[in-house]
Structures are given as C-alpha cells and as structure tokens.
Amino acid sequence: MVSETKRTDLDRRQLAPALGLREFWYPAILDKKVGKKPIRLQMLGEELCFFRNEQGEVSALSDICPHRGASLSQGDCHFKGTVACPYHGWVFNGQGECISVLSEGPNSHIPGKVQARKYPTLTLKGMVFVWMGESEPAPIKEDVPEEFFEKDSQILYRIADWPVDWRVALENSMDSHVYYVHRDSILMFARGPLDPYGRSPRIRPVFVGNGFNVIWGDLEAQGNPRRSWGFRDYFNILRGKLAYQDTHEGLGRWPKSKWRLLLNWVFVPANKRRWSRPLTTTNPLWGAGHHLPGMFRTDMRTHMYTRMCVPISEGTTRIV
C-alpha cells in the first residue's frame, strides 16, 4: 500500500496550482448571457462581476466592492456602461473607476479616488475571454486557438460545471475510458468496429518517459490486415474470419457480442469519407494534444474538438 505522502510525491498533477495558472487568458462567459443585469462568475477562486460598458462590450470587475465588500453583481446597472453597488450605491464604470456615489449625492468627494479591480476582457466569436494574471496581458493569440481569429470559422459551445479538480478533468481528456464508458454512444457506433486503417476502436496506454501515450488496439497482430475496411469485413467478422473481440483469460470475450456490429454498419461510408479528409489544422501550435493553460484538442477531420478546463474553485471546474 502506498502511503498518502508517497502518493502525493508520485502525483505529478500536484505540480500545477490547484486554482490554475494565472498568467493566461481564459474563456469566461458567452457574450449573449450578459444583458441588463450584472452577472457573477467565479474563476480561479476569484469572484468576478460582468456587465456591459459604455461601448456595449462586456467588462469584468472584482465582484467585491472596495468600500465594504458587498457583491457588485447583486447591484444594478442604473446608468449605461456602469454597475452600482447594492449597499451604498457606489457606481463603477467599465474601467473600474468609481464615478458616483448615489448615497451621498453629486457632491461626494469619493469619485475619482476609488478603483475596483478590473480584469482585461476580449470577446471573440461570442465568447468573453478574461486575463486572470497580475501582469500586463499577453497577446491573446498566444492562448486562444487560431479558429477564433478566422473570419469564416464557426464555433459551437457547450459549457458545464464539473465537481472535479481541473487537473483531473484535463488529464481525463486523454484516457482509455472513452472506449468503455461511451461504448454505446452514437459517436462510438459511428466509428464502426474498426477504423479506416484496420485498427480496433480500443486503445492501450504506453508509458513514455515522464508521461504516457496511447497505441490503438493490436488486432492487426491477430491476423487483421492493415488496410481500408468496408461492408464485406462486417460479414467476415461475424463469420469469425476477422478478429473483433479481445479474449480475457478466465473471463471470456469483450465485446461480448459481435452482433452489436449490426447497429453501426450503416456508418461505414460516412466514416470512411471523414477519415479520408485532410487534417483540420496543420499548425503545430494548435494541433491535437494538450495546450496551456488547461486545454485539450483533437482533430476530427470535419472539425476540431477543444476542451478548455477553467478552475472555479478547488475541486470544481468549468468545461468549455
């Protein structure tokens, strides 16, 4: 049994901060979600308040009012381009400057002397990105994939909060669980029993130096030729002339039945067309794999799948 101390020493995920890497741009919120009311969002353990500035663009301030610590997002946007604290009515603009104090009137001496923390923001393809660092923002093209800057690219979003550490969520993106947990999903059925190169839709982990890589199922070693696959091969698998199932000693075969193939043979033409397409991107900076600060990408030939893991707090992650 490995002790907890030893286990921590062996867990390289602990080398990354529990609340994420700060000097980066992160996706925060869809632009269309920010309307007439301020919105609170937690990122990297910090509370942010989002609202629209005088130019109609989304700005982000610390949600903690510098006066008495009230939540700005519980206030109102009484005047265009501003947010007012719900406690004493301190009004802040998109730059974080206090420009009025409603509880003291127009003659208050506070405006111009108080500043709420401002987080730099940029909106790309409908997504508001926030610079979470303390230093001057880096060029956003260093942290955000190239398609966000391409005029004709189309980006679809799905955002969900997971009750898991961001480091685990990122690691999970390259993991053999996909071929078991999601084995009955449409995507797995669409892959067919073998990919266009004759490889099994299962992977084996291979440790390489300070991490691991994967190899595809070794059904070629069971007698399957490495070539393109078609309808005839389904019948050869069912007749036992081609390998499809693994044999687990003392247990049996997996998948248990070859008849599940009947559920996916219709996907063969589309699957072959998809994998005959060129890569979506040939840019090594934004190809498949892991990218800082917490991103995983895989090239599906018809599109790029990107998972961005944004720490919310210790143990919770926003998946974009």
Topology:
Elements: H1 4-10, E1 25-30, E2 39-43, E3 46-52, E4 58-62, E5 82-84, E6 90-93, E7 98-101, E8 118-119, E9 121-124, E10 127-131, E11 160-162, H2 166-172, H3 178-181, H4 186-191, E12 200-208, E13 211-217, H5 231-238, E14 246-248, E15 252-254, H6 268-276, E16 289-291, E17 295-299, E18 304-313, E19 316-319
Antiparallel strand pairs: 1-10, 2-3, 3-4, 4-8, 5-6, 6-7, 9-10, 11-19, 12-13, 14-15, 16-17, 17-18, 18-19
Descriptive overview:
This protein has 320 residues and is an alpha+beta fold. It has helices spanning 4-10, 166-172, 178-181, 186-191, 231-238, 268-276, and strands at residues 25-30, 39-43, 46-52, 58-62, 82-84, 90-93, 98-101, 118-119, 121-124, 127-131, 160-162, 200-208, 211-217, 246-248, 252-254, 289-291, 295-299, 304-313, 316-319. The strands form 6 sheets. Strands 11-19-18-17-16 form a 5-stranded antiparallel β-sheet. A hairpin with a 5-residue loop joins strand 3 and strand 4.
Structural key phrases:
320 residues; alpha+beta; Rieske Iron-sulfur Protein; five-stranded antiparallel beta sheet; four-stranded antiparallel beta sheet; 13% helix; 29% strand; elongated
